[in-house]
Design brief:
By secondary structure, this protein is an alpha+beta fold. The protein contains 12 helices and 4 strands. The longest helix has 30 residues. Bound molecules: glutathione.
Length: about 260
């Protein structure tokens, strides 16, 4: 009944997988080969015209955009609830979802894409590379990928992305000093949506970025200990894959650290 077009390392797909696990829903995974741009093939664009993962298909209807998918799952399968009760907490939930969609996600992409996707694209001829990039439907994403392909972590996008991460962590610390989870005392959709962006830091061995933010550190320890996270995210990272990611993360860390110092 539920199919998720997904990729192991996609934070947007991971957040949906966490929600599916929190709700103990059965679903089928359809992995999309992002390294080889299967997401731009006509059959996939027919499902998701933006050419990105995830796409959820439920009762033969595709739903796109990860935050919308999460809210759709909450509406369709309300128990156990991941939505806070009070109007203020619900507004905060939407604040976090929006912040993640428009700021943190592109920033995570600017840090992860050069390390994970760029090497596969660099193996193609320049003509093939540009042909694939030209097919990306949205201009900002297309031009950002062009810069990241050309310059890797030296692209101008990277310093701004490190700042967005740092500012997000600061805002989370202020919030988590007052309450257990991002929107209330209950784990909720905002926590599900935020968790993958810390998986990205963790997989590259960059959790030092949390030094000085004890509440955020503790939040991530509690997120990581949840069965949903273990099942929907951690289980997809084999020791071999984690070893590779830690190595490329360690190589990149001096650049990230330099940007952090410059903030
Ligand atoms: N706003 C979208 C963003 C989805 C997105 O950027 N997905 C990435 C993986 S995390 C992707 O499919 N990238 C493929 C590409 O850029 O070519 C959502 O929330 O679903």
């Amino acid at each position: 009944m539920i199919t998720l077009y997904t990729h192991v390392m996609s934070p947007c797909a991971q957040k949906v997988r966490i929600v599916l696990a929190e709700k103990s829903l059965d679903w089928t995974a359809h992995p999309i080969d992002l390294q080889n741009k299967e997401n731009l093939e006509p059959w996939y664009l027919a499902l998701n015209p933006l050419g990105v993962v995830p796409t959820l298909v439920h009762e033969d209807r595709p739903i796109i955009e990860s935050s919308i998918i999460c809210e759709y799952l909450e509406d369709s399968f309300p128990q156990p609830s991941l939505c806070p009760v009070s109007p203020h907490a619900r507004a905060m939930m939407r604040f976090w979802l929006k912040h993640i969609d428009i700021k943190l996600h592109p920033s995570c992409g600017a840090l992860q894409w050069p390390l994970v996707m760029r090497p596969a694209l660099l193996k193609k001829t320049e003509e093939e590379q540009q042909k694939l990039i030209n097919q990306i439907p949205e201009e900002p994403r297309r031009e950002r990928q062009r810069r990241l392909l050309a310059m890797g972590l030296e692209a101008p996008d990277v310093v701004g992305s490190v700042k967005v991460y740092r500012d997000t962590i600061q805002k989370m610390e202020e919030t988590l000093l007052k309450q257990g989870w991002l929107t209330s005392e209950q784990f909720g959709l905002a926590d599900c949506a935020m968790a993958p962006y810390f998986q990205t830091l963790d997989q590259f061995g960059w959790l030092e970025i949390l030094d000085g933010y004890p509440s955020v550190k503790d939040w991530f320890v509690r997120v990581r200990a949840r069965e949903s996270f273990q099942h929907a995210v951690a289980a997809d990272f084999s020791p071999v894959l984690l070893g590779q990611l830690k190595n490329i993360g360690a190589e990149a860390w001096p650049v990230i650290k330099r940007h952090l110092k410059d903030l």
